[in-house]
Amino acid sequence: MSRRSGILEFAVLGLLRESPMHGYELRKRLNTSLGVFRAFSYGTLYPCLKTLVANGWLIEEPGHTTEDALAAPLAGRRAKIVYRLTAEGKEHFEELLSQTGPDAYEDEHFAARFAFFGQTSRDVRMRVLEGRRSRLEERLEKMSASLARTRERLDDYTLELQRHGMESVEREVRWLNELIESERAGRDLKGPGHGETVRDTTEGAPGVLPRPGDTPGPDTPGDTAT
């Protein structure tokens, strides 16, 4: 299985863990919620779904509602197939969520992993964020060294493009630093029913992502992931 198809399978399982969907809904969510998948087509998605069904991680069911089931025959069309995550599929997805190998730090895979951080335990989130930061810091060093060697041979536009690339990586490193500090400090969550703020001290509880300009709070004993 290629790395790209593996990312797609991961994202499909994650979306279906939230709720069953038919293929069109899945493709729409992949395009709108996970920008990394904008280039994927139905020709890529449906073989992926068939593979997941064959592995026992998904099952195919008739359309969501009675109206769906009745409308298709009247229109001369097949009923929409809805894909639902099985217990085995949920277990497999949770296993994938727990993995923090080097692939999780790469551009496309990191974007997919980050999209499901709300379903990921804090210690895993920390490892992925720190791994991604290290990967980008290595990239910055290589870009800086390359620019130093070739600066005199580059025209102004190429040089500006190189600088723009470095600035983009530097911005992401700063963003990752904010996220890591937020994870270490704990998350502020909305309490059920009253909108009160409570401190997140649980492993894997989803929280509020830091926004530009936010100042992370002080470390709380026991909240720092190792």
Automatic annotation (TrEMBL):
Q: Which stretches does the entry tag as region Disordered?
A: 183-226
Q: Coiled-coil intervals in this record?
A: 126-167
Q: Which InterPro entries does the entry mention?
A: Metal_resp_DNA-bind_regulator (IPR052509), Tscrpt_reg_PadR_N (IPR005149), WH-like_DNA-bd_sf (IPR036388), WH_DNA-bd_sf (IPR036390)
Please give the superkingdom of this protein's source: Bacteria
**Basic and acidic residues composition bias: residue spans:** 183-202
The UniProt keyword set, sorted, is:
Coiled coil
Instruction: List the Pfam families.
Output: PadR
Q: Where is the Transcription regulator PadR N-terminal domain?
A: 12-95
Q: What is the protein's name according to its record?
A: PadR family transcriptional regulator
Origin species: Streptomyces griseorubiginosus
